[in-house]
Each structure stands twice: as structure tokens, then as C-alpha cells.
């Protein structure tokens, strides 16, 4: 299976996925995609000799469909079977998510369905939650809302700040996402629970 990984920033999740796709793993990274030419993930991917594609969303302004049309054209030569969103910070329209329905997954830093959207760690702290973590889910038209493919959880510690919690959750993300992709690439949708 060929995997496209979409990043917007440092791409630590992308690096964890790429590092795991070796040996008997049924998938291989086909292309690393970003909306941000300066994404650290793109620089790293280039150093690894991976194919990269940058499609800047800014020239398209509010025209998400035009951005996605450019994205689709740039993806075509790489013919991915699976798309992994990994710290990709652009919302995708139903036009794009429908095209990739059942083939596109995302990692979100909360125990969905709690805390869809942004600032998940601060919101969990604010709510006084004792458990927190991350979720990998299939991408649908609704934000952070598709079928859950895996979750990893931790206990919130006394004195945890949003920054500390984000770092602790990121470690879990790097374990969860590769484990889910291994199953997903075999069409196994049994949830991974860590
Ligand atoms: C992190 O906040 C992570 O929780 C979320 O996306 C952000 C960047 O991740 N999934 P990455 O280092 O670019 O993978």
C-alpha cells in the first residue's frame, strides 16, 4: 500500500509513521505533502530522500475547493492508497473527504468525542479531567468526527500545564498512529487501545 502523509509543521507524527514503515509492514511512504513550504516535516522528508509536495493554501484564500483541486492534481502522480493527516492544520471540505472516504485517517490530541477542534489540552485541564490522550479516526466531512480506529490514554498529573500535557500526549501519538496504520493498511479496523 502507498501512503501519503499530510503535515503542516514539524511532522513528528509523520516521522514516527515513516520510521515504522519498514520490513514486513504492508505500507510504504509514497509522498509527504504540506500546505507550508517551511514545514520542518518537509525538510526532514527531503533529507530522507522521500517524495515531497507543497501546495500553498494562501493564494486560494477562502476558496477551499481550489486549494483541494491543486492538492488532488499534485497527489495524482503518486497514486496513494491511503492518506494520513499528521498535524495537518487545514480543514478539508466534504468534496475532498468524500473522495477519500474510507482511505483517509487523522490523529487528534484528545479522547474523542471529547474536545473536537483546537486547544484540547487546555480544555481537558479546564474541565478538571483526570484522563486524557489521543485518537486516530477515519476522516469524514465533520471535523474530528469519523469512526474511531484507536485511542491511547494517560492520567493527567497534578500541576500539568497544557504544554507539558501536549508533550506527554505527543509521545502517545507516536506509539498509537503507527500501530493503527499497520492495521488500517491490512483493512483491519479493529480499534487499537493503548
Ligand atoms: C501536535 O499538536 C499533535 O498533537 C497534533 O498535531 C500537532 C503537530 O504534530 N497531532 P506533528 O509534530 O506535526 O506531527
TrEMBL record:
Enzyme Commission number, as recorded: 2.1.2.2
Top-rank taxon: Bacteria
Gene3D superfamilies: Formyl transferase, N-terminal domain
GO CC aspect terms: cytosol
A single MF term (Gene Ontology): phosphoribosylglycinamide formyltransferase activity
Positions that bind N(1)-(5-phospho-beta-D-ribosyl)glycinamide: 11-13
Residue positions binding (6R)-10-formyltetrahydrofolate: 64, 106
Marked site: Raises pKa of active site His: 144
BP GO annotations: 'de novo' IMP biosynthetic process
Matching NCBIfam families: PurN
Entry's family note: Belongs to the GART family.
Annotated protein name in UniProt: Phosphoribosylglycinamide formyltransferase
Underlying gene: purN
Amino acid at each position: 500500500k502507498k501512503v501519503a502523509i499530510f503535515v503542516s509543521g514539524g511532522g513528528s507524527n509523520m516521522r514516527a509513521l515513516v520510521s515504522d514503515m519498514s520490513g514486513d509492514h504492508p505500507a510504504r511512504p509514497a509522498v509527504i505533502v504540506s500546505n507550508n513550504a517551511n514545514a520542518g516535516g518537509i525538510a526532514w522528508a527531503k533529507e530522507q530522500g522521500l517524495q515531497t509536495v507543497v501546495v500553498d493554501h494562501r493564494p486560494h484564500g477562502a476558496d477551499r475547493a481550489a486549494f483541494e483541486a491543486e492538492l488532488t492534481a499534485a497527489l495524482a502522480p503518486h497514486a496513494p492508497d491511503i492518506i494520513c493527516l499528521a498535524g495537518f492544520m487545514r480543514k478539508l471540505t466534504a468534496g475532498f473527504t468524500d473522495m477519500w472516504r474510507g482511505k483517509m485517517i487523522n490523529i487528534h490530541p484528545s479522547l474523542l468525542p471529547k474536545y473536537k477542534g483546537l486547544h484540547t489540552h487546555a480544555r481537558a485541564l479546564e474541565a478538571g479531567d483526570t484522563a486524557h490522550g489521543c485518537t486516530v479516526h477515519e476522516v469524514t466531512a465533520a471535523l474530528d468526527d469519523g469512526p474511531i480506529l484507536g485511542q491511547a490514554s494517560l492520567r493527567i498529573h497534578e500541576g500539568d500545564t497544557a504544554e507539558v500535557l501536549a508533550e506527554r500526549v505527543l509521545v502517545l501519538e507516536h506509539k498509537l498512529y503507527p500501530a493503527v496504520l499497520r492495521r488500517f493498511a491490512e483493512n483491519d479496523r479493529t480499534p487499537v487501545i493503548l
